[in-house]
Amino acid sequence: MCDDLTAHAEEAALAQSGLNRREFAAIGAAAILASGFATTASAKGAPKLKEQTVTFATGDGTADAFFVHPAKGKHPGVIMWPDIAGLREAYKVMARRLAESGYAVLVLNQYYRSSPAPIMNSIAEWRTPEGQAKLGPMIRLIDPAATMRDARACVAFLDAQKAVNRKRGIGSCGYCMGGPFTVRSAYAVPDRVKAAASFHGGGLVTDKADSPHKLLAETRASYLIAIARNDDARAPADKDTFREAAKAAGRPAEVEVYNADHGWCTIDAPVFDKAEAERAWGRMLALYKEL
């Protein structure tokens, strides 16, 4: 969960880099390239891509999103839910990499109710007082019901695209606040969303009646739940609760604690861990082979 407790790990990572939060945030795109994650995407033989900013209707207005896919052919669709800082260059880079593996990827601006993307240029901006003041009102507009409305709209958009193979299932992946959105996507459109991956997602197990782990029986998806070690240290029972819920629901679920801290998969995060991010990425690609 992206809060004050996980901020301590970020502070330690920043201290090693010799930068403060404002300096790290100012690096922006340079931090993405320095991560090395993007450079592995354009492997020899990767397909040429087509990308654009798109808009489409939802139950709450008009959403904006980034859509990228191989220039030729039809491919399984994927909904990518960004972390708390929203759609920005880091997630475009990640979406391009996934598209090069043969997917039509839609990255939603989850804050479209308030403003077009980008809201922020890096996750480091969220940690500033100004960033939290800016996002606070926007976050409050996104409740579980709103997320499911958005998921239905995203699926409808993907299914209307020539680049999407409707004979295949749709995948969903989410980071930080987007983690539980992947489960809610599978719940909202069970006949289409067949694989969901959560990376350092928060709120997957709660005591609420609509907690994501309580929705699994009404889905038809397989799951990858990649947990940060510091999130697990705070709530060590959550992984077992999710595993048990998936087993009871008859849903395949790979639930694992990774040797990295909250935010490790997001390439512009201070705690980005390339080795563990690559491992998690590989597990997501294995999951999506089932689509």
The CATH superfamily is: Alpha/Beta hydrolase fold, catalytic domain
Strand content: 15-25%
CATH topology: Rossmann fold
- Distance from first to last alpha carbon: 28 Å
> What pattern of helices and strands is seen along the backbone?
HHHEEEHEHHEHEEHHEH
Would you tell me the structural class of the helices and strands? alpha/beta
Binned, the helix content reads 25-40%
CATH architecture grouping: 3-Layer(aba) Sandwich
How would you characterize this protein structure?
An eight-stranded mixed β-sheet has the order 1-2-4-3-5-6-7-8, sandwiched between helices. By secondary structure, the chain is α/β, with parallel strands linked by helices. The longest helix is centred in the middle third of the chain and has 16 residues, at 144-159. It is globular, with a radius of gyration of 17 Å. The chain contains ten helices and eight strands. The protein has one domain (4-288): Rossmann fold.
Topology overview:
Elements: H1 4-17, H2 21-27, H3 29-34, E1 49-58, E2 61-70, E3 77-81, H4 89-100, E4 104-108, H5 129-139, H6 144-159, E5 170-175, H7 179-188, E6 193-199, E7 222-228, H8 229-234, H9 238-249, E8 253-258, H10 274-288
Parallel strand pairs: 3-4, 3-5, 5-6, 6-7, 7-8
Antiparallel strand pairs: 1-2, 2-4
Helix pairs in contact: 6-7
Domain Dienelactone hydrolase: 64-290
GO molecular function: hydrolase activity
Protein name: Hydrolase
